[in-house]
Design brief:
Layout (H helix, E strand, L loop, with lengths): L3 H22 L4 H26 L5 H25 L4 H24 L10 H23 L6 H34 L9
Helix pairs in contact: 1-2, 1-3, 2-3, 2-5, 3-4, 3-5, 4-6, 5-6
Length: about 200
């Protein structure tokens, strides 16, 4: 159970609340930099743990269960932090709400389907969705780090802000598409009495 891929997944899961802790124990901009470094490092393990598990033939039920939980925890917690520090900016609040709603909705679908949840296998588009979410969040954390430095602050913050917003809206669009795809695949199992 404690193979390297699983350890990386567990560390990524532990890193999710760590983003919040950075802002509780450090002042800005240090908190922004630490959160950015922690988030990017954890996001890279998302690729690495799956790659190593396949290459070393160490895929496990524990890893398959924890991997999507770690991804969702990272994204949702980071979006909460960014939304809070953005002053509930609607350009961030709306796509963040869409992303969080979809993650809860699909998790609920999977839980309801139980043994038939295999029909909701992760698609390539869903992987791109997760990548887009993590890129958008990393850019928005970078924007928070840049805004505290005079000289580079104005241009860097402006560029990072709009790149982050565009990436977040793209991620929200992919989130809606993949959420609808999962719902469509689950429909045959949603009729009739509750099992």
């Amino acid at each position: 159970m404690l193979s390297l891929p699983n350890i990386l997944t567990i560390l990524r899961l532990a890193a999710a609340p760590g983003v919040v802790i950075m802002f509780l124990y450090f002042h800005r901009p240090a908190a922004d930099w630490f959160a950015l470094i922690l988030f990017v490092t954890a996001a890279l393990t998302d690729f690495l743990d799956g790659y190593l598990a396949r290459k070393w033939k160490q895929e496990s039920k524990l890893g398959a269960m924890l991997d999507p939980i770690a991804d969702k925890a990272m994204v949702v917690i980071a979006l909460l932090v960014i939304t809070g520090f953005s002053g509930m900016d609607p350009y961030i609040l709306l796509p963040a709400t869409v992303i969080m709603f979809r993650e809860v909705f699909v998790s609920g679908l999977r839980e309801f389907l139980g043994d038939t949840a295999g029909t909701l296998k992760v698609t390539q588009l869903a992987k791109w969705k997760t990548t887009a979410q993590m890129v958008a969040i990393a850019i928005l954390f970078a924007k928070g780090a840049f805004e505290h430095y005079h000289g580079v602050a104005a241009l860097s913050t402006f560029v990072a802000w709009w790149l982050g917003i565009i990436a977040l809206w793209i991620a929200a669009g992919l989130t809606l598409v993949t959420g609808w795809d999962y719902f469509r695949k689950a429909q045959p199992y949603l009729g009739g009495p509750v099992p």
